[in-house]
Amino acid sequence: xxxxxxYQLFGLSSTASPVEIEAAYQRVKGLYQRNxxxxxxxxxxxxxxxxxxxxxxxxxxxxxxxEQDSPMIDEAEPVGTANLGLRLRWLxxxxxxxxxxxxxxxxxxxRPTEPVPVDAAVVLEGHKPVAAAPDAPASANGxxxxxxxxxxxxxxxxxxxxxxxxxxxxxxxxxxxxxxDSETDGETDQLDNERYERTLQxxxxxxxxxxxxxxxxxxKAAAQGTLMKRQVxxxxxx
Length: 238
Description:
Helix Hairpins; two-stranded antiparallel ribbon; 2 strands
């Protein structure tokens, strides 16, 4: 069972819906129970696979690890269907990037040629100095402009934090590669290392998602007078 990934344990493809994952978990677990299987290792593997696939964020991290570490096609998925799904995903990514580029060009062209002076050289968010926001959209006037600048300062802070976490993960992985050449970690150290990497990946995923939401939704809402509540990252429960 250890040679199969989480999807293959349930006889599913990597595109399975949450409803299909839940149904497959109940079906396989019930099959073991009806047959009187008491292998704790198998039942633990099923529970672990379900806990990952039922959590959207942990599932995204797991799918990414499958693509990076051992790219393969699920046994339950026909080859033609897998290739088609991969092409569609890449097409969706390309279209998203194209739309983002067009939106950026449109926004730049809509900006006034004369810059609007900013009242303060630095916008303070907590105790960290953040570069002052660029000119707010023309739709943000008076108090709305201040709301837009506060939301933009949050965006800049998240982007800096994301770069810091990505650099931290990159440095940590390089350190682990160098240690493997010189020594072997014990089982406890290996588990701690895997937990630390998963925590960093989880935070990077969250920061990326928040930056996208602020860019696409919350900045526009702030320009119209609605300042959405600041979100705080919550680490996963081990």
